[in-house]
UniProtKB/TrEMBL annotation:
Residues 50-91 form the SWIM-type domain. Coiled coil: none annotated. SMART domains: ZnF_PMZ. This is SWIM-type domain-containing protein. It comes from Vitis vinifera (Grape).
């Protein structure tokens, strides 16, 4: 538990040095998506929906709902290359847009269950007679599997003699 605690403290201190709400690995992925998507033509539709043409495929990106027809944005939680293209085309900074999606209260909602308090309890002891004693003094019977007699060797097979 001490190793886990020291690791969590170390990661917390490292996360305080981040520029925004996202970490360096996610920021690198966002920059890669920006580099991949800079050359794609964009066609605006209504209500924040845009169309991106990649080779022969047409993909619809909804900026308001954070969705793309490639499903990359929903799976990873960061804008895919198509969404990065649209965010650049409307004149916003992609990293700022991602920071707005990754606000601290949202992270607390996502990861709050993972960091709930860890219950610690004392381990019960096993006596020589097979009884289990808890730290409160309760006695439990041990449920061991029944003993089975093991045969001394492998059984011989009853072979059918050849008909010829």
């Amino acid at each position: 538990m001490s190793k886990l605690g020291s690791m969590l403290v170390k990661h917390k201190e490292e996360s305080n040095n981040w520029k925004g709400c996202i970490g360096p690995k996610i920021e690198d992925k966002v920059l890669q998506n920006i580099a991949k998507g800079e050359v794609n033509p964009v066609t605006p539709f209504m209500n924040g929906v845009f169309e991106v043409c990649i080779e022969r495929a047409l993909l619809n990106v909804d900026i308001m709902n954070h969705t793309c027809t490639c499903r990359g944005w929903k799976m990873l939680g960061i804008p895919c290359e198509h969404a990065a293209t649209i965010i650049i085309s409307i004149g916003q900074n992609v990293t700022d847009f991602v920071d707005d999606c990754y606000k601290y209260p949202m992270q607390e909602l996502i990861y709050g269950g993972s960091f709930s308090s860890i219950e610690t309890h004392d381990m019960p002891s096993v006596d020589d007679d097979g009884l289990i004693r808890s730290t409160t003094g309760e006695v439990f019977f041990s449920l061991k599997p029944p003993h089975t007699k093991r045969l001394p060797r492998r059984l011989r097979k009853k072979r059918i003699e050849s008909q010829f």
